């Protein structure tokens, strides 16, 4: 049986998108997310978590079910776990619980909430990893997960294109119609991540096997000795996403559960910049090969280990 992680990890993750939309904004006609002041591209943390969820669900295995799935309401899942744990549900399947039921759910004793949380974490990988708000119906409280990501930001400004496309066949008339497609020609995105051993304890019980699954989803392998396999971008391809691929995953492994060095100081050791040739010719970046990735290994704290899982 895999043990709960005992070390803190901070990660720097690079991925790129070519001729696609890495993360559309529904409030902006699904255009690529962009910082309006700097024109740098943005990808939300929940976008990456969704890809990890899909990867884990496709891998399968005990304890790797996914709580948040498309068109699958959450309260019935919590109610099902209440039944399995032999705890009162206090919630009706049609969602029309009366005031007494709702009040009873809110007043669920801490011991029951803890038992319910541990059962949910044991079954669902995403609750065990990312946490969740589980107080919306039968009431399982709230869980802080050990795995968190920042918004990803492109290394350089990106150009959002709104392209016109045509369809030769309409749904109910002979002539075709016009449509739109949003994309960026190229963007290299940088994300920082944090994996807390302190939050990996009960009720999450986030294990070394779970950590390996997160790393495999990001880059295709969990250690420097492991062969590369599938990653979360494989199987997630679509015409709107273009070509997306992981490019770098550097992991800082601390010697303790709470950490031995400030995360931002470790992140500053990794610099991504355009190559001098590209700068001199004033070219817009169009490939990962247009960049240099520099890692400062000098005077790294002895209690922090640097692992290059993908570079």
Q: Mean pLDDT across all residues, rounded? A: 93
What is the number of helical segments per DSSP (H or I, 4+ residues)? 8
Unreliably modeled segments:
none
What letter string, H or E per element, gives the SSE order? EEEEHHHHHEEEEEEHEHEHEE
Ends distance: 31 Å
Percentage of helical residues?
10-25%
Oligomer state equals single chain
Q: Using only CA atoms, what is the Rg? A: 22 Å
Strand content: 25-35%
Helix and strand composition category: alpha+beta
Q: Could you explain how this protein is built, in words?
A:
The strands form 4 sheets. Strands 1, 4, 7, 8, 9, 10, 11 and 14 form an 8-stranded antiparallel β-sheet that branches. Strands 2-3 form a two-stranded antiparallel ribbon. Strands 5-6 form a two-stranded antiparallel sheet. The protein has helices at 45-59, 75-84, 99-106, 110-123, 125-130, 208-219, 263-267, 276-280; strands at residues 9-20, 24-25, 31-32, 40-43, 131-133, 142-144, 147-149, 152-157, 161-167, 177-195, 243-254, 270-274, 291-295, 304-310. The model has no long low-confidence stretch (mean pLDDT 93). It contains 8 helices and 14 strands. It has a domain at 64-143. Helix 1 (45-59) crosses helix 6 (208-219).
């Amino acid at each position: 049986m895999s043990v709960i992680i005992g070390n803190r990890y901070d990660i720097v993750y690079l991925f790129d998108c070519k001729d696609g939309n890495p993360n559309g904004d529904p409030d902006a006609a699904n255009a690529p997310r962009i910082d309006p002041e700097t024109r740098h591209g943005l990808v939300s943390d929940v976008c990456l978590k969704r890809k990890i969820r899909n990867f884990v669900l496709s891998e399968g295995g005990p304890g790797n079910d996914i709580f948040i799935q498309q068109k699958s309401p959450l309260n019935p899942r919590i109610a099902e776990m209440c039944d399995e744990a032999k705890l009162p549900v206090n919630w009706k399947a049609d969602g029309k619980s009366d005031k007494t039921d709702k009040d009873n759910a809110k007043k669920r004793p801490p011991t029951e909430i803890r038992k319910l949380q541990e059962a949910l974490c044991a079954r669902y990988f995403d609750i065990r990893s990312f946490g969740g708000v589980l107080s919306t119906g039968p009431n399982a409280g709230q869980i802080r997960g050990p795995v968190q990501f920042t918004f990803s930001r492109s290394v350089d400004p990106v150009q959002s294109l709104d392209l016109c496309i045509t369809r030769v066949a309409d749904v109910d008339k002979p002539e075709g119609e016009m449509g739109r497609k949003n994309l960026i020609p190229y963007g290299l995105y940088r994300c920082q991540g944090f994996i807390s051993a302190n939050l990996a304890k009960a009720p999450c019980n986030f294990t070394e096997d779970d950590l390996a699954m997160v790393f495999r989803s990001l880059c295709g392998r969990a250690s420097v000795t492991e062969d590369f396999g599938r990653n979360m971008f494989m199987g997630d391809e679509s015409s709107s996403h273009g070509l997306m691929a992981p490019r770098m995953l550097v992991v800082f492994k601390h010697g303790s559960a709470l950490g031995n060095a400030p995360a931002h100081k470790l992140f500053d050791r990794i610099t991504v910049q355009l190559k001098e040739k590209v700068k001199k010719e004033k070219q817009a970046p169009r490939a990962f090969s247009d960049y240099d990735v520099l890692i400062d290994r000098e005077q790294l704290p002895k209690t922090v280990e640097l692992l290059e899982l993908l570079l």
